[in-house]
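ok trying this again, last paste got cut off
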Amino acid sequence: MIQGGCPNTKAGAKGIPGTGDPGYKVKAEFNDRSHTRGVISMARAQHPDSAGCQFFICHGNAAFLDRQYTAFGQLVAGDEVLEKIATCATSGPERSTPNTRQGVKTVKIVAE
């Protein structure tokens, strides 16, 4: 999976990447959407109502997350970009930090 939205990954931030929040929490809205490739879901800490600004995009099947995380979207185009981000060179303690900054430039909301 690809995780994003952490304010601690912005230039000049001082916190540990992956631990930042916006200063508020969002109540969980678990649903029946399965966590398959391209599903976008809210990242959270152990408490179900601890989501804030971080999200993740599934790079493959992650059905073990179903009904435990709030899935709220689906990639409908750009699968090649998902693949490039998910397979970019990484480093860090868990080899999960991209060597070059990855980012989302635009998002388009489309009706189901």
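PB: full thing came through this time. The first strand starts at residue 2 and ends at 4.
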